[in-house]
Amino acid sequence: MKDLQQEVQFKQALKLHQVGSLTEARGLYLDLLNAYSNHPRLLNNLAMIEFQLGQFLMGLEYIEKSIDIDPTQFSAYGNRGAALFALNRFEEAFSDYNQAISLNKNYAEAYYNRAIINEKFGNLADALKDYDQAVALKPNYANAYNNRGNLLKELRRYDQAILSYAHALKSNPRHAEAYFNRGVILKELKKYPEAISDFDQAISLKSNYVDAYNNCGNALIELRKFEDALSYFQKAIQLNPDYAYAYNGQGNVLMELKRFDEALLSYEKAIALNTNSSDALNGKSNALQALNRFDDAITGYEEAIALDPASADTYANRGLALQSLEKLDEAIQSFDKAIALNPEIADPYWNKALLKILMGEYEEGWRLYEYRRHRKGQKEAYPVYEQPLWLGQVPLHNKVLYIYPEQGLGDFIQFCRYVPLVEKLGGKVILSVPAPLYSIVKAMGLNAKIVKKDEKIDAFDLHCPIMSLPLAFKTSLENVPNAVPYFYADQAKKRDWEQKCPVTSKTLQVGLVWSGSAAHKKDHDRSIPLEKLQPLFSLPIAFYSLQKEVKEQDMAGLHGLKQLHQYQDEFVDFSDTAALVDCLDLIITVDTSVAHLAGAMAKKVWILISYLPDYRWMLNRDDSPWYPTATLFRQQNVGDWDRVINEVKHALEKLLITKT
């Protein structure tokens, strides 16, 4: 431009363009175009403004004129390529980027944009080369490092991807997407605290980052920080009320919190927003199953399978619902289908194991039961040792076997009966015991060295988690080691209870446990509200609460029950409970550790079993092969405790007649 005034006007337009005042800049460019209609840079700049305003076709007219006038403008080809890309004209855009690079081998942006198209075309190796060239030419190219990290993530080269994101963040510490993308990989690698830190950093830079809130919520679920996770999903929903993924995640949290009705509503909202979400359909069906709506659950699972026929998880969950309807053969078929689809996940094997044991098919059941150690989230429960796992495969003579606890206290009580059998094989035993059971296990008269859980142990040759002992001894229904008692009350403590409790031989003395730990996954099925027991309290019986934990909803009802003696604050460990149990005529309990304690002490025990029984109680029988002194009272319909309590009341009335 030869005219000084027009030169000033062009510089003014450039300045307005750079600060984002596009309309004003456009007006000045158009004025100049009247005098300089063949000025390639002016045409290029006008094209750029049209592109920025979303007027791609008009912009293409300007830039094509610019290229016709000066075909050596590498940046013009790059700019036209970007416009063509925005118009989904990828082949033409790719050609323009190739032309730009042929004109300028050092044009980093063209390599970057060509890499994006190569990814879209599935040319991942070429895309990676282009990203590598872009960052080689421009070492502070944060976006290129970020996209390169995304490509490496897709190639499952996670360590290199993380390094690429680190370069992006070094170049631009405020690159929210790089934090988010690195967080996604860290979550995939199960490095949840680090992932959460990156998601939070992304959110701090971009407060409306819905995907980061959602992913952070999912990572918090893995850390079992459910209330925190719920707040993140709720924030995502607040930012975007139509964000289906967040409703699905919220449903998952509410399931963990046992807020099943709310979970169902959340999944239904996710499905309304995305009718093709098999995950949300699976989640909805899980909620229906938790609400004991098994037919509806199965319908939902089948809809999810129609959308995703390769989902092993859905088949496994469907199997559980079929089992709940006592369609046992179909349940096994569903578990088998899950296993066939994904032999690497443990839950279908585990579900099948529990069903097989429930059905009395112990040989296959105990073998499959070993998959419990490989289930998600079980790593800490089953530490890895250098010494071999013992499952009965080698003689124990002159060997030291370390046996350690797993799962609940009731499980340990049930299966520690095997320790004397291990000792008879000639080996030495180190037995690790949960602290609440330490005193009573010490009183078993074992030769084993007994230590408290997490206490330092001596050297050993072999190890075995306690619930693998049935497999090690090839346990069948015919050879269950059910000699009782093998637990005994401390006689000094028993005398103390006899002095402090109004125990007499004239009145029937009954121990009572109506609920278990709220933390138990199936507690909503196995526990009974205290108010349901009112018919029993009308009988002339002295009841003794053996509860250690009393739920808040039961506290008010306890105050008015004079015939229910309460000593929960005096139960320091199970030796205290056992001493009181030994004073009583009968124990009535839901499926908790006290049921096992009473059975192991050969006390008369009535166990109240839900419609969906735990595997150890089997099906359609009122006795237990594990505890000869036990009688089982079973629900006949889901959730119907009234009939069970009525049966117990009639049985107590018969005992009262005998007592008198």
TrEMBL record:
Signal peptide: none annotated. Transmembrane segments: none annotated. PROSITE patterns: TPR, TPR_REGION. PANTHER family: TETRATRICOPEPTIDE REPEAT PROTEIN 6, UDP-N-ACETYLGLUCOSAMINE--PEPTIDE N-ACETYLGLUCOSAMINYLTRANSFERASE SPINDLY-RELATED. It comes from the Bacteria. This is Tetratricopeptide repeat protein. Keywords: Repeat, TPR repeat. TPR repeats lie at residues 40-73, 74-107, 108-141, 142-175, 176-209, 210-243, 244-277, 278-311, 312-345. It comes from Methylophilus aquaticus. It holds the Pfam family TPR_16. The keyword Protein biosynthesis does not apply.
